[in-house]
């Protein structure tokens, strides 16, 4: 499975792509940061993030996208920009029919370090180790994006199977209901 992790941000939006499967070795495919200038007009910054993410999704062709779930911070202006960048990543995936998973920072930290309160240095060290990298990904936004992708590789497979099972049960229930209604309209009652 190839997963693109996105650590959303208005100035630095981390993007990391890994390939792997639960219990298998992970491989780095790509890591970068989509940047916008803080003094640029807000709409142009969003456009820059959108064009950067869209180009990376098209080039790298992930099977799924994992985005950091935006949570309330004290600075509303910062959280709004972060949420807008997250929305752009979600939209880019949705346009291509890719599944999207949202993970809290604690979930991604716990997945790669075993500690949901790990600091940035611990995350970077573990991502470097898990991907067998010679040098640590920088800045921290890049390492965080890779942590999100790793989190989804390890946890997303189970979530995908559960979602598929739920869809199958829903589809089966819908088919049974259609059959019941069809039988009822033909004059037979199945009640």
What does this structure look like?
The protein has 191 residues and is an alpha/beta fold. It has a single domain (2-165), classed as Ribonuclease H-like superfamily/Ribonuclease H (Nucleotidyltransferase, domain 5), CATH 3.30.420.10. 55% of the residues lie in helices and 17% in strands. The chain contains 5 helices and 5 strands, in the order βββαβαβααα. It has helices spanning 42-60, 76-95, 105-113, 120-130, 140-185; strands at residues 2-7, 12-19, 27-35, 64-68, 100-103. The chain has a 5-stranded mixed beta sheet. Helix 2 links the parallel strand 4 (64-68) and strand 5 (100-103). The mean pLDDT is 90.
| Strand order across the largest sheet | 3-2-1-4-5
Termini Cα gap: 45 Å
Uncertain residue segments: none
* CATH first level: Alpha Beta
Q: How many domains, in number, for the residues?
A: 1
Please state roughly what percent of the residues sit in beta strands, choosing from under 5%, 5-15%, 15-25%, 25-35%, 35-45% or over 45%.
Answer: 15-25%
Radius of gyration equals 20 Å
Helix content: 40-55%
Number of beta strands = 5
Order of helices and strands: EEEHEHEHHH
Q: CATH homologous superfamily?
A: Ribonuclease H-like superfamily/Ribonuclease H
Binding site for Mg(2+) 2: 68
Organism: Actinomadura spongiicola
Cofactor: Mg(2+)
Family: Belongs to the RuvC family.
């Amino acid at each position: 499975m190839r997963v693109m992790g996105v650590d959303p941000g208005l100035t630095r939006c981390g993007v990391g792509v890994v390939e792997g499967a639960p219990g298998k070795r992970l491989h780095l495919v790509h890591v970068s940061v989509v940047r916008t200038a803080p003094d640029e007009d807000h709409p142009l910054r969003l456009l820059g993030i959108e064009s950067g993410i869209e180009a990376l999704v098209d080039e790298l062709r992930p099977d799924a996208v994992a985005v950091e779930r935006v949570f309330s911070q004290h600075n509303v202006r910062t959280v709004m920009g972060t949420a807008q960048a997250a929305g752009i990543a979600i939209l880019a995936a949705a346009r291509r029919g890719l599944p999207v998973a949202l993970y809290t920072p604690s979930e991604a930290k716990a997945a790669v370090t075993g500690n949901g309160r790990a600091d940035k240095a611990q995350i970077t060290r573990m991502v470097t180790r898990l991907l067998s990298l010679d040098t640590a990904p920088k800045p921290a936004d890049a390492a965080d994006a890779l942590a999100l992708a790793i989190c989804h590789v390890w946890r997303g497979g189970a979530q995908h199977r559960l979602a598929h099972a739920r869809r199958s049960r829903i589809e089966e229930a819908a088919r049974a209901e259609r059959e019941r209604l069809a039988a009822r309209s033909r004059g037979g009652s199945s009640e």
